[in-house]
Fold this protein.
Amino acid sequence: MIRRLLLIILACALVCATPSKLSARPALDAQVDAILQAMPLDQRVGQLFMVSVYGKGLPDSSNVFLREMMPGAVALFDYNGTTPQEVTQTVNAWQTVATQIGQHVPLLMAIDQEGGPVMRLTQGFTPLPWGAALGAMPIEDARKVGQIAGEELRAVGINMNLAPVVDVRGQTRSQFIERRTFGSDPQVVGGAASAYLLGLQDRGVIGVLKHFPGHGSAEDSHTTLPVVNFTRDHVEAVDLTPFKIAIGNGAEAVMVGHLVYPALDPTPGLPASLSPTVIGDVLRGELGFQGLVMTDAMDMGAIVEHWTRPAAAVMALKAGIDLVAAGPHTPMSEQLAMKRAVLDAVQRGELSEARVEEAVRRVLMLKARHGLLTWSALDPGSADQRVNVQAHQPLVDAIYLDTIAIAQDNAGRLPLNPANQRIAVIFPGVYPAVQRECAAIAPPAVSFAYTLNPTDIEQQSARTVARNADVVLIFTFNIGDYPGQADLVNTVPPEKAVVVSLQSPYDIEQGIQPAAYVTAFNSYPPAFKAVCAVLYGKHPAVGRWILGN
């Protein structure tokens, strides 16, 4: 309880220390007004789309598309380049086109760089802590992670990160989202997400809260239209709380998910992303959010199984969305059709010009507040030096040391004492580095590598190893995906077993009952080194246990 109160106090300190960027200066208002007055309807409507452009650089088809679409934003994916040099070249090409057409307005250049399973830039960029690790670490470290991410994104010309995930891991388990969430406690999630968001802002990158009103208990909206059936009291206490905290901390953009929330809008089958009630009454009204509101990708099953993408784009804008994300699998011809549908809706009076102007103003004001109405190309040749992974790695190593959490230690097994204990190490063979890191501190009496779904023979080997050891250190990896690991753990006498989850902190829920349980959170080498230091008492366990419910 004391630690939770400290977290809330720290979150409040973040609010007090950070002036709101949503109160625009008069000079910015005048700048935006001048652009708006000179901008024809065709370009205004284009500003309301975050498009996907296929391939690296600027092939002729992409050049033609950008000049016709005149979008306000582009989302980058791995097919646009993965190295610092490739991404810089692509960004330069797209921004050059944007600043040559219409009112010469540069693009919001966005990317999904949450980390872990949702990390578009993998070559030449730092693999940063992600998901529950951000909820476990001290809140000031979560801000540092945001700062590092922001530095590396701005180094290649990216100015918006479609992160942090503000969904609370729900009572109804969602494999799709739970490993991306920061935890199960709404206050912890809100505080950690706020810190990460402010870290991005410290380095000139716009963060985006997602997926409003909360995807933590929902099925995968990539394949279906989920219905989240909680009471209004539950939704307010759990799902909306971290959004409230992060909005209070100066969030400037929110992504609305394709999720049906009957407690917020009783209209059958209407997702939040298309709901005037959820966007207007709840997000803008009750939560007081005045920044930019965008959709999740419009190529997801939740949308395309029920509406055409052009029709859904019109519905979203009518509902109060400011920026429609086309998604990575929407053909450029279909994106142009979405724009034409919006233009047609304006021309026949279904969508008012006032609603378009309101949305465009928010897009332009966000750009203005971050100095993005002007643009200069970056040198691709020096992109690696600007990203500067070497400088960030020591910071990441230190952050991981403060992230490792001891969830339980019922028999007082920790820290390990190799001088007085015969220690056996059992680990997934795909991660030999974890065994090496621990052996560098204290060579085990015996070690044994197993496959991710252990065979009967491997389980028998684990029993044999355990028979001759005082303590059995067992590293697991996502038992929910590989249930045979639970059987392997349970072959070891529980009073001897010290289990370390290398990625999912929720392995403890998979029917295992070890004497001690430790979470490394992310299966990266810095986490391996840090967890071994904590296990052998070289560093205290600072991380928070984030289950909560």
User: Anything to note?
Assistant: The first strand starts at residue 49 and ends at 51. Confidence is low (pLDDT under 50) at residues 1-10, 15-21.
